[in-house]
TrEMBL record:
Keywords: Coiled coil, Signal
Segment forming the signal sequence: 1-23
Protein name: Uncharacterized protein
Residue ranges that the Swiss-Prot or TrEMBL entry lists as coiled coil: 83-117
Length: 157
């Protein structure tokens, strides 16, 4: 019975006191912190870069499938002996991609830290550096597609 009385008193305090629980009284007023809305153009660019990267990766998967089929025939026909230099270039690109992805992760963490510090200029700089790294990743993936095309041409001949 006591619990019901306490709940009714609390409910009446909330319902009949117009200022109770508002942001001004509780201290939870939102400040003018840098929000993601200030970086809307950059975020759209990041999404566009991500979309482009996904298209490139889809192309890479199709090329891998075709290479897999060609390698099965190569084993039977003994073709494709001159692909060692192309494979070395692919390994270099793979190691470059790993480094760029680490660089991208640190740039993104630095951007988030600048956002928490409410430092607009630093956040803008970090966002721009992250976007540049993302573009570099896409360029490396495009190089990988070109090398895969070269491998396919060599295996088909």
């Amino acid at each position: 019975m006591k619990k019901i009385v306490v709940l009714m008193l609390a409910a009446s305090a909330v319902l009949f006191n117009p200022g109770y629980g508002t942001a001004e009284k509780t201290g939870f007023v939102q400040s003018d912190s840098p929000s993601r809305m200030q970086f809307q153009e950059e975020l759209h660019k990041a999404n566009q870069i991500r979309f482009e990267r996904l298209e490139i990766k889809q192309d890479i998967l199709q090329k891998k499938d075709e290479l897999l089929q060609l390698r099965a025939h190569r084993i039977a026909d003994k073709k494709g002996a001159g692909l060692t230099d192309v494979r070395k270039q692919m390994k270099e690109i793979r190691s470059d991609l790993i480094q760029l992805q680490k660089k991208s992760a640190t740039a993104k963490k630095e951007f988030k830290a600048a956002m928490k510090k409410k430092n607009h200029a630093e956040a803008k700089q970090k966002m721009d550096s992250w976007l540049l790294v993302q573009e570099e990743i896409n360029a490396k993936l495009k190089e990988k597609v070109k090398l895969m095309d070269l491998m396919i041409v060599k295996l088909k001949s």
